[in-house]
Amino acid sequence: MDGEPASGNWSIDGDEFVVLVNHDAQYAIWPAAKPIPAGWNQAHSAAQKADCLAFVESCWIDMRAGKLPDRTVQR
């Protein structure tokens, strides 16, 4: 089904990927040849896997979802 991860191994280093970002500022690497799933937007053009990973590492500083409510504890 389009928009879902393939059941096989599509993470071959020679393939081209794009970097996606969702509304929670979470990043993902996605095969460039596959349609972008709903809820995600392209954040980096098609490139080799290593280049996409480097882009994600430079952008995604906080691995927590960006829209999480502030849960500071009052003591």
TrEMBL record:
GO terms for biological process: siderophore biosynthetic process. InterPro entries: MbtH-like_dom (IPR005153), MbtH-like_sf (IPR038020), MLP_fam (IPR037407). Residues 10-58 form the MbtH-like domain. It comes from the Bacteria. SMART domains: MbtH (SM00923). This is MbtH family protein. SUPFAM superfamilies: MbtH-like. It comes from Bradyrhizobium betae. One of its GO terms (cellular component) is cytosol.
